[in-house]
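Supplementary Text 2. Reproducibility record for the structural model of the 496-residue chain.

All settings were left at their defaults, and a single model was retained for analysis rather than an ensemble. We include the record here because the model underlies the residue-level annotations in Supplementary Table 4.
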Amino acid sequence: MKMLPFFVIIPLGTAFLISLLGKKIRNFSDILANLGTLSLFLLSMYSITLVNAHKIVVYKVGGWIPPIGICMVLDGLTSFMLVTVNLVSFLVTVYSISYMQRYTDKYRFYTLFMLMLAGMNGIIVTGDLFNLFVFLEIAAIASYALVAFGTEAEELEASFKYAVMGTVASSFILLAIALLYSYTSTLNMADISLVLSEKGRGIIITFVAVLFLAGFGLKAALVPFHAWLPDAHPSAPAPISAMLSGVFIKTLGVYALCRVFFNILGISSKISFILVILGVISMIAGAFLAIAQADIKRMFAYSSISQIGYIIFALGIGTPLALLGGLFHLFNHSIFKSLLFLNSGAIEYSTETRNLKRLGGLNSRLPVTGYTSLLGALSISGVPPFAGFFSKLIIIIAAVQAGYFISAGIAILVSILTLAYYLKFQTYAFFGKPNEAWLKVKEVPLTMRLSMIVLAIICVIAGILLIPVLQPFLKNAVSVLLLGCGYKDVVFGALK
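Retained model, structure tokens:
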């Protein structure tokens, strides 16, 4: 129980120490940031055993019993997201040791990075709706600064656009929380659900649902709320692009949306239908926009919109199998999209360009980058036996079982389109005759290669999460969504 606050305390404390001593002590920020993310990952792994043993753990901040006091909640969904976020974060900080040397003030990068991580972890563990908003803002503000970290005109413009769109999303979410508080007189998630079950749902709750959908839809970059993402993700340094597409949009967008609509407001047939429609549109639009791109990171950014569409589509279907497929794809996408953005960073690190038309034949010069990139590309395209194949297959089977035949067909066609533009990327960047300009380039440093290799291995073996021994990791998360508004009974039961 007492470990829960450390998911916020460790990154906040690390950020403070790095900002204080990072400039004065050589390599201090590298060491402390990596120790911080490693400890968070190990704590996340330990949380799986806690969930298996107790199902739910509630920590009362300051000893005050909710709903008067603030609480932190660890359940299957919390544990699942913590492992996903902190695994990627650790590998990204390892990658950053070498990659961020080209930037000045590396300690400032790590300070902002740890603040962003504190915000994401806070969103995941909090049981209070206003605290969720506070942590969301901590993560968002840190990410605005990180997108602009290069301070070039392109980065500053992208950061400004991202900040404006992010502020609009935050305003929607804050207004929704204020209206919900005016109706229920409480901010505790479980208590809001309890009050709504007793008081009934007035028309104001429908308006609140629309505001939450728009706010979290913007954070998740769902079409038509996606305009900020194709500029923000390519402009950021590669480690931040990996974080933004890998885990950031899923934490601030998908996770928050799941928690609010499944466990607090309750998922209705109308909301489910809207999620299915938004998911299908995002799948199609993201894929068609990605295939036309020559900038590697811009292609990957549009690809993220398409893959988020799969996850939202699965959540909209709402059957146990669909939820399993959706959450499994969330995990897989966090891994292979982080890998691909790190690959793009390695290419840019060695060649100083992201333009596919200027590349070619890099496999002979950057073999580790090339082969890990190929594994990531095959996994995201749903090619068997990689992890992405299994999560997409589960979603498609669930769609067919639920009667969404046309949508299932679209999901298959989009997957084929995904394979097409990732083969385009591999062909232009790594295959073919080597470009004379790149004959002298060398493979990236060891720490960058190490992160890419570990992520590539996970892409290959993540399908083992479906075997019975490891299934509880996914099934515990699915069971929380299937609880629906029964979440309140479990939380209050754990408090007694």
